[in-house]
Amino acid sequence: MQKILIVDDNRVVLNLLRTILSSQGWGVETAQSPERVWELTAQQRFDLVICDINLEAEQNGIDLLKKLRDFCPVILITGAGTLENTVEAEREGARDIIAKPFDIDGIVAVVKRVLAEKDEKEALRDDELCGMPEADLLGRSPQMVALYKKIARVAPTSATVLVTGESGTGKELVARAVHKYSLRANANFIPVNCGALTDTLLESELFGHKRGSFTGAVSDRRGLWEEAGGGTLFLDEIGETSQLMQVKMLRALQEKEIRRVGDSRSTKVDTRIIAATNRDLEEEVGAGRFREDLFYRLNVVTLNIPPLRERRSDIPLLAERFVHRASVNCGRRLRFSDEALRLILSYDWHGNVRELESAVEHAALNALGTIIECDDLPEKMKSSANRARAAAVRAPLTDLYADFPSLDELEQRYLVYLLDALGGSRTRAAEILRINRRTLYRMAERFGISLETD
């Protein structure tokens, strides 16, 4: 039985609400003061608290809301609703605000909805706890399986690793996976974004400094290279560093020792280095922007992460993880419509996994119900799909095969071309292709093509 606590300094209101809610099968307790609230909440767990905003006490309903909201949902009641009260209640996390006088059906409906949302959110969180850890790499494509095998081989060694891939592919996740399955797993994993700091700050951050070595150095400080001793230091965006910093990193790698800024002595360190970049470092070496000797020190083992558009079979798996996370955050179980999923699959994802995650979050915020539709996705995705379709339709017939497509791709292009030429008529398309309409539907579904008119 779900339990509800009602808080109001008016006994008549308490008795009325007790009668209304008890008749629905809920267990109900009442309190006329904050002190009684704390007594009751110390003794038992409540699924919902309904509290008057204006209590004749030192603590009002907003004060109680701030303390109770982390333990259960709170509905506030007000007899003098003001904009200020409403804004503050919403900001502090009230699940709803009910104005007096209230009608029986109305308050029962609100309570049912809030309790149902609570149950749904708890179920979603339970599902998440049973699922794959959020920080893990995700993918079942042949490219990702090959990457997993390489991680498994390199992780137990002490080799320096260079992780490459486009922005948003998950280079830090790969670095964390190498650390997790290494002999250093129980020691620190420390990431640092080399591209976000100036040379001076990066040197102090990596190697530490002595007191008085520069303005603001009020005490000795260990650097991250030293802090990661026995563990792993992840140098993200290493391609953005200056040649001067590259020389200092090279020395630390070669000698396995660092020198703090302002110190005359060196300190031995046992730190595994994993570096990452979205640049082509061989190209950077050729252009004179990256030191060749540092490149070869880092490039003992290279782990390259394929872009998302080259492992499309992983997109539904990733999208499902992100929509599940969005469901937990918004308290309702979301899912994609077939059309939205087809659009997600056909998009090129130049921002890779990070862009996919952002698009799903955007869609979750825009979805009116529990189904994410095409219209809920970012505008650029819809525009891209429309441009691709329009380009395919406008292209001369020879363009259908000018780039030597596979038979599947050629079949898809021709179906799009034919449907546009026929104004979308399914009957005529089936006649020209000499297939029945059921086969036409199966073809269209296989290629993610919408059959809208006849």
Describe, in short, the structure shown.
This protein is an alpha/beta fold and 454 residues long. It contains 19 helices and 16 strands. Helix 5 packs across helix 13, helix 13 packs across helix 15 (352-366) and helix 16 packs across helix 17 (407-421).
Task: Give a structural overview.
The protein has helices spanning 11-22, 34-43, 61-68, 83-91, 104-130, 142-154, 171-180, 199-207, 224-227, 243-255, 281-286, 292-298, 315-330, 338-346, 352-366, 379-394, 407-421, 426-433, 437-447, and strands spanning 3-7, 27-31, 48-52, 74-78, 96-99, 161-164, 189-193, 208-209, 221-222, 232-236, 257-258, 267-268, 272-277, 301-304, 335-336, 371-372. It is built from 19 helices and 16 strands. By secondary structure, the chain is an alpha/beta fold. The protein has 3 domains: 3-130, 3-Layer(aba) Sandwich (Rossmann fold); 142-306, Rossmann fold, CATH 3.40.50; 312-447, Helicase, Ruva Protein, domain 3 (Orthogonal Bundle), CATH 1.10.8. The protein has a 5-stranded parallel beta sheet, with helices on both faces. A 5-stranded parallel beta sheet has the order 7-10-13-6-14. A two-stranded antiparallel sheet has the order 8-9. Helix 13 (315-330) crosses helix 15 (352-366) and helix 16 packs across helix 17 (407-421). The chain is flat and about 80 Å long. The longest helix is centred in the first third of the chain and has 27 residues, at 104-130. Strand 3, helix 3 (61-68) and strand 4 (74-78) form a beta-alpha-beta unit.
